[in-house]
């Protein structure tokens, strides 16, 4: 078989099959017709026709994050490829493995401003982990196999393979995956044992330790989350997760301090600030976490475990860097911990835990459901309670609702929470939920949404209808770009420039127009019924939950403030940390 | 100046696959992340493995220089990176072609200077010379400076190439 000539399009589809691909999210056009012809002729790969290419990439991201397998996208040249750019940038920021096949004009036309030509490799170079333009059908199989290897090894990320139409039609030879080895890309997976031993020693002698873990733990695979849980319990130390890292450690566990960062909990941010040993695992000291850099955790020794050497010492200088795959390093750490002769003194962290309990007692996420308006926090708390124990997955859009979802939903397992963290892409949640539902047809998949974000990829309701995907869109409708409004309230004198959502559609009718069920809830006493009804409905549902328009997300570390300087809400006018003029220029 | 604000100059060698777009990746990395490029040279150095060697002279704080190397390491077609400035002694060379248009005394003086700098006249007419000068960047710069009043009309510099001294290879 290996030496038989095939067409380029046949080679690509065969290579995808050999890579175990089951689903492609795509949208056809002139430059990919030969590939679509091959898709037509086979049955093992399912094609999901989205309604805009941006939706295809987010769907692939949702698929990838909920399965751990790479998501695959197929789009045409020119506008097909440019529509995919936002999704690629999103996947790069959040380290999601995605293979995006783009059509390209015929090789002899490249550079001529041909119809639907765009310099796709040029445009996507900074938003992909790597990209390829394949000019010879004999290179196709190797390139596809290499792309899967690069997308899924090391720090995962999106890959574009640009496929000129003549190459899809030309004939060439196929190579199976086993015959393709990458020449240069060999990420380090095992951590340096000396550094690991030093790290374990530091952790066991700590008086005020904290584990700070991120999306890298999830990307390393479910085993990494298990090992993390094991290590954290062995040590008895507190742990906090980043937005991307939620689910790597069970949220209900008593050692868990909740999310940290700009909208993290009081106890998590204070513990990060006051700790003497910080163990950062698969996180990257992002500006949402650190706040003002010179005030970040001044008294701690820092350990940083990451598979990407460029994450280390990028924003924060650390004391013990360990380059390697999280699961491998954690396995070694546990071994070393168990074999160590000098165990931590009993009660060494007793004072620290007492301090943490004091912070916890602030109950920074408390809110009161009073009055006639539904509090968004309440709606999410109920959503969490009423879906507990179910086979559930949550995606989100971007805004206040996203932060509340991170604060009030509880994740006991990895891969059940998909949100656009690094890029913060409104319009992510709905297509991502589609991708999750495709991978988990019987699960409850909820997109926690804002009304403004929902409008960004609303066309995908049509895809949801076509494939009978029972996705639930749970809109916390505050008739505002709430997060923008919150910043305008805090930083721009309450001048709500263009953040009010005028002329919103009737979401119930809109749902019906797309063959979904629409539910509206305006009464706090009916929230439970509405959620139960949503769950009971077999097909897709759009919930229009009308919530308090004026609610803000707290705690909040204002831009430019130190990470332990938080607004908790309800401060007297002028009290609490101020936004500095430096802070005003930050995003 | 404190440790984290002092700016250093580093010469970095990168061995890459000689393939389509690889230079754009390197240059795009520098512009996209706001790093400086003082000079950059590239050419294929290994025919059998089809590898090119890129030599970059850059400046930045110690933390930025570390980042530059780590970020270069993330590029998929990159095989090896060496920081010739910290690895130990290395040899750096740059070549320039300097066109000098002048007559009479100035012309004679230009030729005398060229001799001192071991620059060669590789083209000559009655009114002009093209000198080829090779050396460390400072020497090349000094030579160009001296040609200024003597009729310097055009300069073309290659940028720095560099290798480790002794038996070390990258
Ligand atoms: C594509 C895109 N454009 C603009 C923004 C800036 N932005 C961040 S949050 C937000 C408002 C989101 O409003 P909504 O979806 O209603 O959520 P809410 O904050 O009200 O919960 C905007 C405009 C963004 N994140 N993404
Ligand atoms: Mg809103």
UniProtKB/TrEMBL annotation, chain A:
Cofactor dependence is on: Mg(2+); thiamine diphosphate
Which keywords describe this protein according to UniProt? Amino-acid biosynthesis, Branched-chain amino acid biosynthesis, Magnesium, Metal-binding, Thiamine pyrophosphate, Transferase
Among Gene3D superfamilies, the record links this protein to: 3.40.50.970, TPP-binding domain
Domain Thiamine pyrophosphate enzyme central: start-end pairs: 196-332
Pathway this chain belongs to: Amino-acid biosynthesis; L-isoleucine biosynthesis; L-isoleucine from 2-oxobutanoate: step 1/4; Amino-acid biosynthesis; L-valine biosynthesis; L-valine from pyruvate: step 1/4
**Class of the enzyme per the UniProt entry, highest EC level:** transferase
Domain named Thiamine pyrophosphate enzyme TPP-binding: residues: 398-545
Q: Which Pfam families match?
A: TPP_enzyme_C (PF02775), TPP_enzyme_M (PF00205), TPP_enzyme_N (PF02776)
Q: Which residues form the Thiamine pyrophosphate enzyme N-terminal TPP-binding domain?
A: 6-121
Q: How is the cofactor bound?
A: Binds 1 Mg(2+) ion per subunit.
Its catalytic activity?
A: 2 pyruvate + H(+) = (2S)-2-acetolactate + CO2
Enzyme Commission designation:
2.2.1.6
**InterPro entries associated with the record:** Acetolactate_synth_lsu (IPR012846), AHAS_TPP (IPR039368), DHS-like_NAD/FAD-binding_dom (IPR029035), THDP-binding (IPR029061), Thiamin_PyroP_enz_cen_dom (IPR012000), Thiamin_PyroP_enz_TPP-bd_dom (IPR012001), TPP_enz (IPR045229), TPP_enzyme_TPP-bd (IPR011766)
**PANTHER family per UniProt:** ACETOLACTATE SYNTHASE CATALYTIC SUBUNIT, MITOCHONDRIAL (PTHR18968:SF13), THIAMINE PYROPHOSPHATE ENZYMES (PTHR18968)
What family is reported? Belongs to the TPP enzyme family.
Instruction: Indicate what this protein is called per its UniProt record.
Output: Acetolactate synthase
UniProtKB/TrEMBL annotation, chain B:
What are the entry keywords?
Answer: Amino-acid biosynthesis, Branched-chain amino acid biosynthesis, Transferase
Gene Ontology terms, MF aspect: acetolactate synthase activity
| Organism superkingdom | Bacteria
Question: What is catalyzed by this enzyme?
Answer: 2 pyruvate + H(+) = (2S)-2-acetolactate + CO2
Sections of the chain in a coiled coil = none
Outline the extent of the ACT domain. Answer: 11-86
Give the matching Pfam families.
ACT_AHAS_ss, ALS_ss_C
Report the pathway entry.
Amino-acid biosynthesis; L-valine biosynthesis; L-valine from pyruvate: step 1/4; Amino-acid biosynthesis; L-isoleucine biosynthesis; L-isoleucine from 2-oxobutanoate: step 1/4
Q: What class of enzyme is it?
A: transferase
Q: What is its EC number?
A: 2.2.1.6
Described by its record, this protein's role is as follows:
Catalyzes the conversion of 2 pyruvate molecules into acetolactate in the first common step of the biosynthetic pathway of the branched-amino acids such as leucine, isoleucine, and valine.
What family does the Swiss-Prot or TrEMBL record give for this protein? Belongs to the acetolactate synthase small subunit family.
User: What is the annotated quaternary arrangement, including any partners?
Assistant: Dimer of large and small chains.
List the protein's name: Acetolactate synthase small subunit
Identify the species of origin. Answer: Sneathiella sedimenti
């Amino acid at each position: 078989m290996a030496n038989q000539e095939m067409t380029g399009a046949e080679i690509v589809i065969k290579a995808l099959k050999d890579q175990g691909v089951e689903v492609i999210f795509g949208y056809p056009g002139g430059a990919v017709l030969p590939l679509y012809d091959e898709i037509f002729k086979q049955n093992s790969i399912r094609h999901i026709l989205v309604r805009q290419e941006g939706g295809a990439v987010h769907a692939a991201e949702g698929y990838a994050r909920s399965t751990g397998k790479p998501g695959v996208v197929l789009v045409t040249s020119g506008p097909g490829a440019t529509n995919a750019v936002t999704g690629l940038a999103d996947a790069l920021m959040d380290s999601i493995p995605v293979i995006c096949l783009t059509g390209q004009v015929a090789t002899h036309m490249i550079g001529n401003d041909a119809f639907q030509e765009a310099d796709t490799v040029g445009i996507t170079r900074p938003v992909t982990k790597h990209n390829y333009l394949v000019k010879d059908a004999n290179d196709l199989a190797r390139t596809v196999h290499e792309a899967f290897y690069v997308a899924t090894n090391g720090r995962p990320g999106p890959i574009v393979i640009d496929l000129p139409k003549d190459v899809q039609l030309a004939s060439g030879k196929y190579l199976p995956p086993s015959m393709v080895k990458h020449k240069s890309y060999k990420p380090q997976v095992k951590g340096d044992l000396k550094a690991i031993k030093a790290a374990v020693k530091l952790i066991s002698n700590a008086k005020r330790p904290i584990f700070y873990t991120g999306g890298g733990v999830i990307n390393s695979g479910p085993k990494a989350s298990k090992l993390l849980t094991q290590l954290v319990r062995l040590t008895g130390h507190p742990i906090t997760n980043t937005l991307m890292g939620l689910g790597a450690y069970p949220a209900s566990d008593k050692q868990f301090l909740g999310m940290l960062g700009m909208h993290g909990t009081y106890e998590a941010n204070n513990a990060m600030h006051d700790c003497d040993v910080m163990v950062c695992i698969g996180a990257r000291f992002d500006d949402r976490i650190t706040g003002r850099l010179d005030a970040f955790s001044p008294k701690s020794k820092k350990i940083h475990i990451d598979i990407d050497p460029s994450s280390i010492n990028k924003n924060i200088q650390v004391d013990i860097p360990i380059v390697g795959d999280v699961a491998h390093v954690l396995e070694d750490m546990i071994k070393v911990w168990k074999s160590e002769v000098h165990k931590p003194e009993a009660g060494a962290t007793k004072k620290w835990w007492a301090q943490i309990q004091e912070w916890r007692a602030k109950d920074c996420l408390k809110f009161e459901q009073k009055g006639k308006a539904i509090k968004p926090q309440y709606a999410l708390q109920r959503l969490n309670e009423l879906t507990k124990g179910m086979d559930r997955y949550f995606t989100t859009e971007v805004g206040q609702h996203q932060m509340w979802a991170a604060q009030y939903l509880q994740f006991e397992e990895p891969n059940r929470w998909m949100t656009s963290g690094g890029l913060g892409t409104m319009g992510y949640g709905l297509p991502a939920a589609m991708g999750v539902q495709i991978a988990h047809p019987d699960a409850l998949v909820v997109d926690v949404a804002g009304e403004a974000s929902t409008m960004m990829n609303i066309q995908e309701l049509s895809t949801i209808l076509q494939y009978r995907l029972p996705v639930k869109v749970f809109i916390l409708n505050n008739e505002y770009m709430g997060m923008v409004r919150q910043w305008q309230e805090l930083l721009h004198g309450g001048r709500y420039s263009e953040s009010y959502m005028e002329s919103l559609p009737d979401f119930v009718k809109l749902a019906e127009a797309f063959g979904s069920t629409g539910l509206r809830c305006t009464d706090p006493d009916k929230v439970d019924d509405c959620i139960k009804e949503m769950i009971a409905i077999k097909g897709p549902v759009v919930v229009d939950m009308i919530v308090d328009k004026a609610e803000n997300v707290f705690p909040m570390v204002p831009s430019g403030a130190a990470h332990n300087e938080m607004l908790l809400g309800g401060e007297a006018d002028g009290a609490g940390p101020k936004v500095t003029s430096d802070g005003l220029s930050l995003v | 100046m404190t440790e984290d604000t002092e700016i250093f100059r580093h010469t970095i060698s990168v061995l890459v696959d000689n393939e389509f777009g690889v230079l754009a990746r390197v240059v795009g990395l520098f512009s996209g992340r706001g790093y400086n490029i003082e000079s950059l040279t590239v050419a294929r150095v290994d025919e059998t493995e089809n590898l090119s060697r890129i030599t970059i002279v850059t400046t930045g704080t110690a933390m930025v220089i570390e980042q530059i190397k780590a970020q270069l390491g993330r590029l998929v077609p990159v095989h090896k990176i060496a920081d010739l400035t910290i690895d130990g002694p290395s040899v750096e060379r740059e070549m320039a072609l300097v066109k000098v248009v002048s007559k009479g005394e100035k012309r004679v003086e230009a030729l005398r200077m060229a001799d001192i700098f071991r620059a060669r006249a590789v083209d000559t007419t009655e009114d002009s010379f093209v000198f080829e000068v090779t050396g460390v960047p400072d020497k090349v710069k000094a030579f160009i400076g001296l040609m200024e009043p003597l009729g310097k009309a055009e300069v073309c510099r290659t940028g720095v190439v560099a290798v480790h001294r002794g038996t070390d290879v990258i």
